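Subject: Re: docking follow-up (adenosine-5'-diphosphate)

Dear J.,

Thanks for your patience while I sorted out the input files. As discussed at Tuesday's group meeting, I've set up the holo structure prediction with adenosine-5'-diphosphate included as the bound ligand rather than trying to dock it afterwards. The sequence and the ligand SMILES I used are pasted below, so you can double-check that they match what you have on your end before we go further.
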Amino acid sequence: MTNALMSAQNLQKSFGLTEALRGIDIDIYPGEVVAVMGPSGSGKSTLLHCLAGVLSPDSGEVIFDGQPISAMKERDRARLRLTQFGFVFQFGQLLPDVSAADNVTMPLLLAGVKRKTALVMASEWLNRFGVGTKADKLPTQLSGGEAQRVAVARAMVTKPKILFADEPTGSLDSLAGEQVLTAMLEQVRAVGTTVVLITHDPRAAAYADREVIVRDGQLSPSYRTGAKVAE
Ligand SMILES: Nc1ncnc2c1ncn2[C@@H]1O[C@H](COP(=O)(O)OP(=O)(O)O)[C@@H](O)[C@H]1O
Ligand SMILES: [Mg+2]
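The structure tokens for the complex came back this morning:
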């Protein structure tokens, strides 16, 4: 199995006496949507943060595109997160004082894209997520579902190789959650983005190519649902 986009071996991470990750191996293949499920406190967010280079594991290694992430300088890791990874969280991720459009342009401007170009791209992605008419609204003027669509648009506007989503619909009611999720998956499939999706919702997991289950900091045997896994 050498064609994984991201590969982690023996990830271990403790916070004090809490062993959040106790030896996790996972391969993530280009274009697949992997749902990560498991009880609260089982280590899902810690796993995502280690995969994304936000947290350094105590031991083990994460390889992205053939490169060990831990060997990078923090500056290079930050650039990798900005340009190759996208992030969506449960809530509270939009900058509160700027419009939806400005929220979406932000990662582009940080990556050096000119403002005019960034605004065009932001507009395209807001449209893709059905919130094009909300471009000038502040986050407080949006419904929860609209705010999450803007957040996903912001995560996708840089065309990340991997989208990391930590319970992206966890703060929404089930209808809004389902709508955000189907919009997100339609767009990631259109672009071919690889997704690591933490979710409690079995319906959300049903949209994924496969599920893995985290229990007590370890992956329990997973079952696959039509995974596009190369042999
Ligand atoms: N920054 C932290 N400091 C201390 N303990 C933490 C920290 N982050 C996570 N933990 C602990 O690690 C374990 C796994 O947490 P987490 O990865 O957030 O689980 P999940 O996302 O599955 O709910 C929990 O026991 C949690 O309390
Ligand atoms: Mg979590």
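A couple of observations from a first look. The chain has one domain: 6-220. The mean pLDDT is 92.

Let me know if you'd like me to rerun anything.

Best regards,
T.
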